[in-house]
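Protocol step 6 of 9: fold each sequence in the batch and record its structure tokens directly after the sequence line. For illustration, a two-sequence batch is reproduced in full.

Sequence one:
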Amino acid sequence: MTHIVVLGGTGYAGRYIVDEAARRGHDVVSVSRSAAPAGGPVTHRSADLLDPAARQAAVEGADVVVGALSPRGPLDGELGAVYRSVADAVAAAGARLVVVGGFSSLRPAPGEDRIIDSGRFPGAADAPPVPPEALEGLLNEARQMNATLLDLLGRSDGPDWTFVSPGMGFGAHVPGEPTGRYRIGDDDVALFDAEGSSAIGGADFALAVVDEIEQGKHRREHIGVAY
């Protein structure tokens, strides 16, 4: 049994990871700003992760810390500093860090620029365009998540980490049905199906994350997860 702390455990990705890890019998602590649900096998803690003392207390004693935070609300503009601090604490404890990243940190093909740097967002041909009023917000989040990846890649003294990017179609607006399957894209490369779509449901993404926690196949690597 592994002691797993999920930062952002009540968010979309976080709650699926919490549920899957608890289902497999791990000792799971969910940390978030929101009120903690009562009962069940998971320990829920409320914390303001902008507070350095709260961050230290949140990850203390963990074997694995999962970062499932989004650069929204109070964390907008602060996510990079929060993750750097968490990474320092995880490294000092000899634990492991698994960060849920964004699709745009992946590369469309080996050796190509990351999607966030290329200026294009590949996906299904019939996918609706992003409304202009929403685009800058998406780019802002993508840049902050990508900065966390680059920080981890550039650290020689950091923790044992894995950065996991879901497919482009991922979130509460496209939850999908659990299938029990997924594919892993190594070397920062995004995965697409025969129709050119890249997507993963929340439950299946959580399967991939908890499998990685248990198996440790992609240490200090950035991987993509999609169908």
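Sequence two, same batch, same settings:
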Amino acid sequence: YTEKQLHQTACWENVNHRQARVALSFDFPFYGHYLRQITIATGGFIFTGDITHRMLTTTQYIAPLMANFDPSYSKESTVQYLDNGEVFVVQWEHVRIPGKESVGGFTFQVALYKTGTITFSYRDIPLSVDVISSAEHPVKAGLSDAFMVMSPSSQSADLPRQMIYEYHRVEIDVTKITNYSAVEFTPLPTCLLHDSCELCLSASQTSGCSWCHVLQRCSDGMDRHRQEWLDYACAEESQGATFPDVKTDSSTKSVGFANTGLIAGLASALVLLLALILVSLYISYHPSAVSPLYLIQRRKSYWPSLKFQKQESGYTEVEGGGHEKDSIVEAGPC
């Protein structure tokens, strides 16, 4: 694509708040699930979950560079997005970090392609990312997805609680993020791709898949449909399933999903069985890298600037001492 072709089919829009819910013009496949809405955050990431909760920075994100960016510092700071029907691009331009404003602005972007490919592109990285403090906001780059389930009731709680569990994460070495560098993620086939029992159980490009006749769905049990997989006893229906299942009988209610060893097992199994993301990292110090940097090198007339008013962050989710919560987090109101 070229800059001219993109602007013929779509216009750039500004993000006016710390978070902006945006509808995509196409179905974007993410971990085998097709997304039509995402949430853009000024903190350098996209939230991909359906339910907005207190832990946006912990699970279900696409983060080219997550940090405590403050677009209100300068009128030159903007967060904009473009959708031309084939690719959805978000660009953070001249955004600065509180307390580090003098080092200059960061300019980078993420592109979500209709094929499922994701690219991160970096133009201006004035400060080594590994020295940015995470005391006020998590600092990381990569992908994460999670599922939400109802935890079993206990004597201390009258009603079951909704719990969010991160089942996979891809992390980028932040020391590799430099000026004019790029990262590309290529999706692998997932069990959810198969729409028949025969394909589900015989396909060579996926493994660990089981067919649930009640739901008419192929899965390994580790995806956003986890609750349905449990509710309809799909794991019991699938004889000889190789994926580990989370039991919810009375003997396990006391520990449930909070068991750290179990979560570690789920994560390990997913790395082996869930066809997720094949990461190919390409670091280039040339502006013509294979990434949508052409969008960064754009004409000023196409990009209206936007002033941001200072306001409290609505999504910073850091525990005391600057440490993030574990991968098991409870959903709650914003």
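Proceed to step 7 once all outputs are recorded. Observation for sequence two: Residues 3-188+276-330 form one domain.
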